[in-house]
Write a structure and sequence with these properties.
Distance between the termini: 39 Å
Helix content: 55-70%
Radius of gyration: 28 Å
Structural class: alpha/beta
Number of helices: 12
Shape: elongated
Strand order of the largest sheet: 1-2-3-4
Length: 374
């Protein structure tokens, strides 16, 4: 999420706050402190404001606990949690990847609502057990009701809410295809998004009332994110069954290790000016390394004829290499997570297949779409 502010770590997880969170914090503090002052006139000075701020922070702590519920289950499954972010609509735990099975995905999704229900039960129990009264009882009651609302709202069966992820896991289990679950859950998420928009827009248009304007904002949020999920599911469907080898560039920049630099420059650089980096193989096609145009500048021109490519080439990092039979969908995730524009594709025996670029994947998707409607 753009423009976020890192404020530290939670159990080793980077913790961020979006600037919009401060607006909500201020509104909740002011609103609840005003309510406390009206309900308990005996509270003097700035005490209502202090209690309002404390309550607002407790409410947001509940949101953080909800996201930590998702995070801890994901970590137990070996999934890295990249960050937890608080923003205007609540919180978001960003996971490195999807759970490997529908059962595992189900438990990650439901963990957040379970934590919220536990906090609801805890606040309610403390209120009854201590026979709390006055402002303390009001704060405990609000904390309980907000956590119950947080749990129930997130159980709505539409993406991007937890209930949508639960539904996705169920459909995934039934069909055996995760993208099918995304399609179903995202469509339901869009329906709820439109309903929320309508509930906020109709009073505004007919009566000029802003009473449900928050529903309008939530509806837009649901609609946008559910639409993004549906779009990704369509891409996932088209990539299903394809491997890294299917998207390799047929004209990949490859040179032999035993060429001297003069031959390399004459045979490859003059005819392939769009490439600045070339993969290096031996006579059998085994990948050895890579050489770039900049590497040539380290060797004087007068020595090019007696210097071979393998003497200048550099090793290729393992993280930028994928197997030819690796599912293309996994390759796309790798490109995105590592922010790469290309990957080197090899076979199990080390033989080079070629270069796989983002542009080639896009072209492959376009061809599949054209074939479908041809």
């Amino acid at each position: 999420m753009n423009s976020t502010i890192r404020v530290g770590n939670l159990f080793g997880i980077p913790f961020y706050i979006h600037p919009s969170w401060f607006l909500v914090l201020g509104l909740v503090t002011w609103s609840y402190s005003s309510g406390l002052a009206a309900q308990f006139p005996q509270l003097g000075g700035g005490l209502p404001l202090v209690l309002g701020l404390m309550t607002a922070l407790l409410l947001f702590s509940s949101v953080v606990a909800h996201e930590l519920g998702h995070s801890f289950v994901a970590i137990r499954q070996g999934i890295d949690v990249k960050s937890i972010t608080l923003f205007i609509f609540g919180g978001l735990a960003s996971l490195e990847k999807e759970s490997p099975t529908p059962g595992a995905a189900f438990w990650v999704a439901i963990a957040g609502p379970i934590v919220s229900l536990m906090l609801f039960a805890t606040a309610t129990t403390v209120g009854f057990a201590t026979a709390a009264s006055g402002p303390l009882a009001a704060i405990l009651g609000l904390l309980a009701s907000v956590n119950l609302t947080l749990a129930l709202f997130n159980l709505i069966p539409g993406l991007p809410l937890d209930g949508g992820n639960i539904l996705k896991a169920i459909v995934w289990k039934i069909t055996g295809k995760s993208y099918k679950g995304v399609v179903v859950a995202s469509r339901i998420g869009q329906i709820f998004g439109w309903l929320a928009i309508a509930s906020g827009l109709i009073p505004l248009l007919l009566f000029g009332s802003f009473v449900n304007v928050w529903n309008l904002l939530i509806g837009l949020f649901l609609l946008q994110n559910a639409g993004n999920a549906a779009q990704f599911a369509r891409v996932q469907e088209k990539l299903t069954g394809l491997t890294a080898a299917d998207a390799v560039n047929n004209d990949s920049p490859i040179v032999k290790a035993n060429l001297n630099l003069r031959e390399f420059a004459d045979q490859h650089l003059l005819n392939a000016q769009e490439y600045r980096r070339f993969l290096v193989t031996d006579e059998e096609g085994q990948l050895l390394g890579a050489i770039s145009v900049d590497d040539l500048r380290t060797i004087p021109n007068t020595l090019w004829s007696e210097t071979q490519v393998f003497q200048v080439m550099k090793p290729i990092e393992q993280s930028s290499t994928v197997q030819s039979d690796q599912p293309l969908l996994e390759v796309v995730r790798l490109l995105e997570t590592q922010k790469l524009s290309a990957l080197t594709v090899i076979r199990d025996n080390g033989l080079l297949v070629g270069i796989l670029e983002k542009a080639a994947i896009i072209n492959l998707l376009q061809k599949k779409v054209q074939t479908k409607f041809a």
